[in-house]
Design a protein that fits this description.
single chain, 630 residues, alpha/beta, Rossmann fold, Helix Hairpins, 5-stranded mixed β-sheet, 16 helices, 20 strands, rod-shaped, binds adenosine-5'-diphosphate
């Protein structure tokens, strides 16, 4: 819907009115902002001037004095100084600020104040002046105009030299180094004058205007007993303009002794320290006076302030560089640029790592202790195992006692019979030597047989420490079978030896492995108790597996009931009335300790087969833990 032309006109009018009042407000704002001019005697970019300038701007902006605008000008009088130059500069500034009259002017240094006293009338006749960094004697010879106030201050060389004497107690020489410009010369002279009272205890000399490039040659080999006091350097003897802070830095780098100074702006460049004129503080003090004037006070009634406290500061890095102990630093001095120690820097991280390490160590100790006690327990359990195995062997020998005594009695009986026959022969008139020889050979054979049985039994029953060595499995199986022959006969069992030739050797303990075969064989024989005697057959067989040697003991007994199978090798599992249930568990420990495996299964045609396999030596896996059997 289109609006009525009259309404539109009113709206346009209102918009114009609004915009107009906005413009008016903006103009008013600009008009009411008071201008602050900071006039430095040097160029505006010098660090000292910047420190003062920055502090003034910061403080005044913060002190709700209404809108302010800041301008900075540098007379650069240390580099440009002639009557003509100043006049030209004054007229340039007048033109520049014609339409922007400052409400307040700050004069930094005597030079700036001189200039303003001379030209204020034609430049900014209404502007009050606040000065800082001006010589205390400035107004001694002349009266102070009512539009001026400020802070007088001076470098303090005596305090700095007092510090130097504390830090270098053996020093007997003071070398004042500075520039050779006008202002430099006054500073150097003032420094020398203020230290006059130290003569003749100290030899005091001044070196002015040495070009920076010559610093290493001039100051690089000063004797250690020298106090090097750097004053100020705006110009060198070759007329080069110099930034004083650059000179301080170059001098500190080149000098063979610590460099002291009196200006805060040099701190951090490499000087050791001093009682420093604090430019920033000067700025704050000047800003305070300026604020009072801007708030309406008249400068004439504000008394001139005397100086500012020194910044007493030391560079810790320089102390270290010259091997000066920090305990020599007098009280009241602040030691700056301390490189924090690793501890200070990473305290929490170090604590955290320490705690972690402690926890880790505690864990390790606990684990170690646990491992030790486990090892002890393992060793004890091994020991127990060996003792058990031995006890079980003794039990086996007991079990075999009847057949063994039969086995021994047989040759003994034969020997006796042969001896009697020999006696009878000898009683005859012509005994046959051949026959006697034959009898003696039989006696010897029977004796050997009996003693073989005895030594086998002794080996099996002996305490016998474990001894791992390369073994032929067939020999082990044969020795076991030798001990079983008589028992088999006694039980009416046919004992079959089925040894495969050319088997690789294994590594093991002979007696323990014999024990395994005997245990399995005796179990087999017992299982055949109810088997008709014509069918009782026990076979001990050896075979070659891949990288393993297999020993198989099969019987034709009652076989293994399905629900017994999983428990066969557990300790104390037995189905026999007088059984202990330890035989198979001992067999398994022995085979395990040899790095082998044992298993049982029923035969297709009845009976059971127990089979164990051991790693063959040629397979490159000799068992490592030599005493780990049983
Ligand atoms: P024990 O002979 O004292 O019973 P073992 O550990 O030697 O202890 O045997 C445990 C059980 O395993 C036996 O009681 C028996 O039931 C079964 N067993 C062992 N060997 C055979 C075998 N050849 N045939 C059938 N069962 C067997």
């Amino acid at each position: 819907m289109a609006s009525h032309p009259a309404t539109r006109t009113v709206r346009t009018f209102l918009l114009i009115a609004l915009f107009g009042s906005f413009l008016a407000a903006a103009a008013l704002g600009e008009g009411t902002a008071r201008r602050i001019l900071i006039l430095s005697g040097a160029e505006v970019m010098l660090p000292a001037g910047q420190a003062v300038d920055g502090a003034i701007r910061k403080d005044l902006s913060a002190a709700s004095l209404g809108p302010l605008e800041f301008y900075s000008e540098g007379l650069d009088s240390y580099r440009f100084r002639s009557e003509g130059y100043e006049r030209e500069l004054a007229s340039f500034l007048r033109r520049k600020y014609e339409a922007k009259q400052p409400a307040l002017v700050f004069a930094l240094t005597d030079i700036a104040l001189d200039f303003l006293l001379r030209y204020r009338g034609e430049l900014w006749p209404d502007a009050p002046i606040v000065f800082t960094n001006v010589d205390p004697k400035y107004f001694e010879a002349r009266g102070r105009p009512s539009w001026v106030t400020g802070i007088v201050d001076d470098e303090d060389f005596t305090q700095t030299v007092a510090l130097a004497r504390r830090l270098q107690p053996d020093a007997r020489r003071i070398l004042i180094v500075g520039g050779s410009g006008d202002r430099d010369a006054t500073t150097n002279a003032r420094a020398a004058r203020s230290l006059d009272s130290l003569r003749p205890e100290f030899e005091i000399s001044v070196r002015s205007g040495v070009p920076i490039a010559d610093f290493p040659r001039e100051f690089g080999r000063l004797p250690p007993g020298t106090i090097l006091l750097f004053t100020m350097m705006f110009r060198d003897s070759e007329g080069r303009a110099i930034v004083p802070r650059d000179a301080a830095q170059a001098l500190s780098a080149a000098a063979s002794v610590p460099v002291y100074s009196v200006h805060s702006t040099f701190l951090g460049t490499g000087i050791l320290g001093g009682a420093l004129f604090d430019f920033e503080h000067a700025g704050h003090a000047a800003a305070r006076l300026g604020a009072r004037i801007l708030a309406g006070e008249s400068p004439g009634v504000i008394p001139i302030e005397q100086g500012s406290p020194r910044l007493q500061a030391i560079d810790a890095r320089q102390l270290r560089r010259f091997g000066i102990p920090e305990r020599r630093v007098p009280p009241g001095y602040e030691v700056r640029f301390r490189t924090p120690s690793l501890w200070e820097h990473y305290r929490w991280r170090i604590v955290a790592v320490g705690v972690a390490l402690a926890v880790e160590t505690a864990l390790l100790v606990a684990l170690f202790a646990e491992r030790q006690s486990r090892r002890r327990a393992e060793k004890e359990s091994r020991q127990r195992g060996q003792e058990l195995a031995h006890a079980s062997r003794l039990a086996t020998v007991g079990e075999l006692a009847a057949s063994i005594s039969h086995e021994i009695n047989q040759p003994l009986g034969a020997i006796l019979a042969n001896a009697e026959t020999a006696e009878l022969l000898l009683q005859s008139s012509a005994p046959s030597a051949d026959e006697l020889r034959q009898i003696l050979a039989d006696i010897r054979r029977d004796d050997v047989r009996a003693s073989q049985v005895v030594s086998r039994v002794r080996a099996l029953a002996g305490r016998g420490d474990i001894e791992m060595k390369p073994l032929a499995v067939n020999a082990v199986a044969d020795a076991a079978a030798g001990l079983l022959d008589a028992e088999a006969r006694r039980r009416g069992v046919v004992l079959e030896r089925d040894f495969r030739a050319g088997l690789p050797e294994i590594r093991g303990d002979e007696i323990s492995l014999q024990q395994v075969v005997i245990n399995l064989a005796l179990n087999g024989m017992e299982a055949m108790a109810d088997t008709p005697s014509s069918r009782r057959r026990l076979s001990i067989a050896t075979r070659n597996g891949s990288g393993r040697v297999v020993v198989r003991v099969s019987d034709t007994g009652h076989g293994i009931a399905a629900d017994h199978e999983p428990k066969l090798f557990e300790s104390f599992f037995t189905t026999k009335r007088h059984g202990l249930g330890l035989g198979l568990s001992i067999c398994r420990s022995i085979v395990d300790a040899h790095g082998g495996r044992i298993a049982a299964q029923n035969n297709g045609g009845g009976g059971a087969t127990f089979e164990f396999e051991l790693p063959a030596l040629s397979a490159g896996r000799p068992h490592e833990n030599d005493d780990a059997v049983a």
